[in-house]
Amino acid sequence: MKYIDEFNDPQLARRLLDEIRATVTRPWALMEVCGGQTHSIIRHGIDQLLPEEVELIHGPGCPVCVTPLEVIDKALEIASRPEVIFCSFGDMLRVPGTGRDLFRVKGEGGDVRVVYSPLDALDLARKNPGRQVVFFAIGFETTAPANAMAVHQARRLGLDNFSLLVSHVRVPPAIEAIMTAPGCRVQGFLAAGHVCSVMGTAEYPELAEKHRVPIVVTGFEPLDILEGIRRAVRQLERGEHRVDNAYARAVREQGNPAAQRMIEEVFEVADRNWRGIGPIPASGWRLADAYRAYDAAHRFDVTGIRTEEPAICRAGEVLQGMIKPTECAAFGTTCTPRTPLGATMVSSEGACAAYYLYRRMNGQAPHSAPAPTGTPGPQGSRLPQEEMNPVG
Ligand code: SF4
């Protein structure tokens, strides 16, 4: 497939690995920001192919995982109402709230539907004027333009039975929070290429300068990731710390101005709570005053929510790169994709799900389990086979 096959080429992967080996002289710790990159790294065994001096730390870039528990519980409450058609991407259905998830609500009679776009939900609102249609608008900068567009269209069409339950997060404030956290070991970042394709790279030079870390905009195929690592290691070895775009086929410095204008029209920057991490200033978006009528949290006035996280779940530490999923006592035993205790085990971008799906089991055999929703099943990697570590 064009733009996929050529970025999985084993010969080129071997060459990039050789270059990384030839460049590195001492230990470096890099964080891949996005959960999609984490899945690609674990699926292809990239972390196991690297020289031992290069450590990859998995970052918090899984929007499903960082959606606060109180927002999940609000979604469960709203979805239970008889007048509501609650629409969501499939990932969210198994994310545990306090005591239940959206699948359970659906099983109990709630009208919960999986959609592939917020515009599908908008269409449902047009076809069901007697029902309230709510779309669960989560995600990083990547999904924000389409969600903004849906609300913009709803207002233009005069649809007053459509609303968003918003839980958007922004990457740059998360990088700032990671770098200022006590005990941070991160020395360089592989920034999320898809986020930069929307927002551009203008927000990153200040972060790179302030924290003296290279930030390399990186894609998602194996060669993209190896190239991102190669460039980050080269900067570190030279004592450099700048923004570098290793995903030029998708990212321009200015990003996508039309998408940015749509975000600015509909959303405004707000402080946000990150599940397992806590509050991060200016790290989210909420609906701007002009669109507040489309905010499901206001429309349904959900109050009195009491949240309770399972005490055993260490997803917060996983999301901050402080532990690997296999260091959690519940991993692969009481916590599996079929019985998730935390969102990181169920999201298609969650690190725990990646380790389970691709059999990083620390010697345990995984139970038979479905792939996390929206995740392709394990497929044969085309990276150099003799160098792959067949885990599990
Ligand atoms: S394995 Fe399960 S319980 Fe442990 S951190 Fe991951 S999601 Fe939480």
Automatic annotation (TrEMBL):
One of its GO terms (molecular function) is 4 iron, 4 sulfur cluster binding. InterPro entries: Hyd_form_HypD, HypD_1, HypD_2_sf. Keywords: Iron, Metal-binding. GO terms for biological process: protein maturation. Residues 366-392 are annotated as: Disordered. Belongs to the HypD family. PANTHER family: HYDROGENASE MATURATION FACTOR HYPD, HYDROGENASE PROTEIN ASSEMBLY PROTEIN HYPD. NCBIfam families: hypD. This is Hydrogenase formation protein HypD. It comes from Streptomyces mexicanus.
